[in-house]
Amino acid sequence: MQSVNPEIVLTLSVACAKLGAVATENAFGVVVRTGTDDDWPEILKLDSFAFGGHIADLKTGITRDLAPNENVLVATVGDELVGVTMNYDLQITVPGGALVDVPGVTWVSVSPTHRRKGILRKLLTEQHARFLAAGNPMSILTASEGGIYGRFGYGPITTEYTRTLDRRFVQFRDTTADPGGVRLATKEQAKTALPGIYDRWRRSCPGAVRRPDAFWRGVFADPESNRGGASALFYLLHKDGFATYRVRDEKSRMAVEVEDLFAVTAEAYTAVWRALCALDLMETITVSESRTSLLPYLLTNPRLPKVTGAFDLLWARILDFPRMLSARSYASELDMVFEVTDGFLDQGGIFHLRTDGAGAGGVCEPADGPAQVRITAADLSSIYFGEHRADTLAQAGRIWSESDAALDLFDRAFATADTPQGGMFF
Ligand SMILES: CC(=O)SCCNC(=O)CCNC(=O)[C@H](O)C(C)(C)COP(=O)(O)OP(=O)(O)OC[C@H]1O[C@@H](n2cnc3c(N)ncnc32)[C@H](O)[C@@H]1OP(=O)(O)O
After folding, report:
1. With b meaning 16 or more CB within 10 Å and e meaning fewer, what string describes 355-370?
2. Which listed residue, of 34, 263, 278, 380, carries a Cα 20 to 30 Å from 343's Cα?
3. Are 164 and 199 within one domain?
4. How confident is the model at residue 57, as a pLDDT?
5. What is the CATH number of the domain that holds 228?
6. What residues flank ligand 1, with Cβ below 6 Å?
7. Does 385 lie in the same domain as 302?
8. How far from 109 is each of 113, 114, 133, CA to CA, in Å?
9. Cα(118) to centroid of ligand 1, in Å?
């Protein structure tokens, strides 16, 4: 990745008010620079403290493969490393099927000894300046907390629903096929088959992220530290789909925890679920899927899979609005001038988007006002993948429109038939 400003020296003046004392001025110098081999022991220490777990050698090796030093930025004060951010080189599928190379921001942390002094902001400012200089049209991340990244122009783009069903009461409907074709796979068989099936799946699903080889290395290494006390992975394999799962055995009650379930066809999806539900000694099955899971429709009792949680897996931030808006397809016709506000990167402005709709692509270019709709960079990034709707955001007071009719046209054009799904936590 091309670099700009290899080193920025920032002097932050921070007013520290102490209980019962007069506020004092505490000045310190923060240096933001590209990471080096020598930084890695300190990066590991920092992220271990930040995320509350000691990072194993395996994960370190995989991370270093995914994030070469030129993708790493560190913040130092004196000889102390106090902050880090990095990115993996990933690819995302956008509505309509185009594949866009994107940096995936990850391993972000600032030392608890130096928090809320603007170090994250400085790191992300430099990191995103580099993304822009390298011509990246969008960046993505998985967020540790929902309150951090909106201010940097990121919006959530997928939602994963955790569903648990009591397998003992599963009955498939008469209308549900029983296609078969699933086998119990060894790890070696899974290594050969899973990456190819996943890759076919992710190309057909908006929001899905390419899994690099090093990521798969981590999946198949399946270290004890990833199991949370459950079993090693089991693999159920169909030619067009698969499930990987663990078994948790607590007080003689065995529960299946699905880690991955991806299917390119409805037939493969049904076949994999038939096999999962035939695991007689298992009491429950827990899985994370998108809003439009097929599972309830396969069962006589659609209430059986109970939603026990929801999680915004993937966040995105559009960096180049004309390019990204010209990259996706649209659901209906639109010929509109709109304004994007971008308080973080100053990439906003007035744009004209024209599309013939019903699956057609779009042409987006900078334009002159007046705008019919005004939206933030974060909210436009959210509605881009179709999980969140302009209409909902407008009702929440987050989008301005000159009229209800303009909002309705905008909303309908950005809607997607397929629910986005991320496919990868990183
Ligand atoms: C993609 C990923 O890797 S997600 C992982 C993020 N990392 C973690 O969760 C690890 C634990 N947390 C941390 O290391 C730190 O608290 C960080 C990285 C989240 C924040 O670092 P800091 O240097 O304290 O943040 P900084 O002072 O630059 O704050 C920047 C802005 O974010 C806000 N902010 C910082 N942390 C949070 C938070 N946890 N929740 C909400 N807002 C936050 C600040 O108020 C500030 O807002 P403003 O600039 O608009 O006024």
Report:
1. bebeebebebeebeee
2. 34
3. yes
4. 86
5. 3.40.630.30
6. 50, 105-110, 115-121, 141, 143-145, 147-148, 151
7. no
8. 12, 10, 23
9. 8
302 and 319 belong to one structural domain? no
Residue positions counted in the chain: 426
305 lies in the same domain as 166: yes
Pairing of strands 241-250, 253-263: antiparallel
Task: Give average pLDDT by consecutive 10-residue segment, the chain, 426 residues.
Answer: 43 36 50 97 96 90 96 97 98 98 98 96 98 98 98 98 98 98 98 98 98 97 94 98 97 95 98 98 97 97 97 97 98 97 97 94 95 98 98 98 98 97 96
Q: What domain range includes position 167?
A: 160-206+216-311
For 371-395, letters b (16+ CB in 10 Å) and e give bbbbbbbbbbbbbbbbbbbbbebbe
- Which one of 88, 149, 154, 385 is the catalytic residue? 149
Domains held by the chain: number: 3
Q: Residue 124 CA: which ligand 1 atom is closest?
A: 28
Is 145 contained in some domain?
A: no
What was the pLDDT predicted at 56? Answer: 87
Same domain, 349 and 329: yes
- Known active-site residue 426: yes
Q: Is residue 155 part of a domain?
A: no
Residue nearest to atom 19 of ligand 1 (CA): 109
ipTM of the complex: 0.99
One domain for residues 263 and 379 = no
Residue of the CA atom closest to atom 51 of ligand 1: 118
245 is catalytic: no
Whose alpha carbon is nearest atom 18 of ligand 1? 109
